[in-house]
Structures are given as C-alpha cells and as structure tokens.
Amino acid sequence: MLRARTLAAVTAAAASGVLLLPSQAQAAGSVHLYKIYYDSPGTDRGGNTSINAEYVQIRNTTGAAVNLRGWTVTDAANHKYTFGNFVLGKGKIVTLRTGRGTNTSANVYQNRGWYVWNNDKDTATLRKANGTRADVCSYNSTRYDYVWC
C-alpha cells in the first residue's frame, strides 16, 4: 500500500512538471554557512570564554576536501576574518570562534578582544578567495541565541 502511494505521488509530481531530483548544486554539495551562535550565554563582559562562545560554523558537503585559503567571513559592519591555509575535509564542519585560541582542524579563531555578532540582527557573508559570494545567512531575533543557516 505504501509503495503504491509513493508511486502515485511520484507519477503525479512528474505529470505536474515538478522535478524531484536534486539540482546540480545540491547534488555536487557546497561549502556553506551552517550555524551562527550570535548571543553567547551570560552577560557580555568580554572575557575570552564568553567571546569564543559566539561563533560561525562552515560546513563542507562536497565530495572532496576544500582549501579555504583566502576565503572570508564578514558581518554587516564588515568585520572580516580571512582564512589562512586551512583544509576543510569532505563532510566536515569548522567552527570560527570570535576570541583568541589555537587553531585546530575543528576550530579557528579570529583572535579578537570583543564580540562581532550583534545579539539582535546581523548578516554573515562567506566569500571564496576570488571574492565570489559562496553563501549568506541573516538573522533578526532576540528570541533565540543562534540561527541555522
């Protein structure tokens, strides 16, 4: 019965012209913004632990590792982070933390002494080394502390 309903749904979608296959970009995957945690827990007093609790995650859903050298992440006020020689493995996520720390394969640090992401609204833009926009993610809420992109 379930198989018959599924076949009927696929047939109806095909007849209506709806394409059920992923687009070329979706099939190939992408390097994109994944999550922004813009309001770190507690009072914003500027301690490194608090500053590092705000972050942007970037995810690689392609079938290969991608070198992010020269890629940038900016906010609406044009605070900019530029990746050095950093390889993001296929299927991996890197967390770009605002404060200070030692870069690893899972975390990179902007080495800033104050917060970047506004607690109410902001826009993150991810650009490739050649300046082409790879992704953008915005939020406009004080109800939540993070946004899935």
Protein topology:
Layout: H1 2-15, H2 24-28, E1 31-37, H3 48-52, E2 55-60, E3 66-67, E4 72-74, E5 80-82, E6 87-88, E7 93-97, E8 107-109, E9 121-127, E10 133-140, E11 146-148
Parallel strand pairs: 7-8
Antiparallel strand pairs: 1-2, 1-11, 2-7, 3-6, 4-5, 4-9, 9-10
Summarize it.
This protein has 149 residues and is an alpha+beta fold. Helix content is 16%, strand content 33%.
Top keywords for this entry?
globular; four-stranded antiparallel beta sheet; 16% helix; 149 residues; disordered N terminus; five-stranded mixed beta sheet; alpha+beta
Structure notes:
The chain is globular. The strands form 3 sheets. Strands 8-7-2-1-11 form a 5-stranded mixed β-sheet, with no helix packed on it. Strands 5-4-9-10 form a 4-stranded antiparallel β-sheet, with no helix packed on it. The chain has a two-stranded antiparallel ribbon with strand order 3-6. The chain is an alpha+beta fold and 149 residues long.
Would you report the number of β strands? Answer: 11
Distance between the termini: 37 Å
The ordered string of helix (H) and strand (E) elements is: HHEHEEEEEEEEEE
- Regions with pLDDT < 50 over 5+ consecutive residues? 1-27
Rg (CA only): 19 Å
- Shape assignment: globular
Structural class: alpha+beta
Main sheet? 5 strands, mixed
Range of strand content: 25-35%
Helix content: 10-25%
The protein's oligomeric status is single chain
Strand order of the largest sheet: 8-7-2-1-11
For the residues shown, what is the average pLDDT?
A: 86
What's the total helix number? Answer: 3
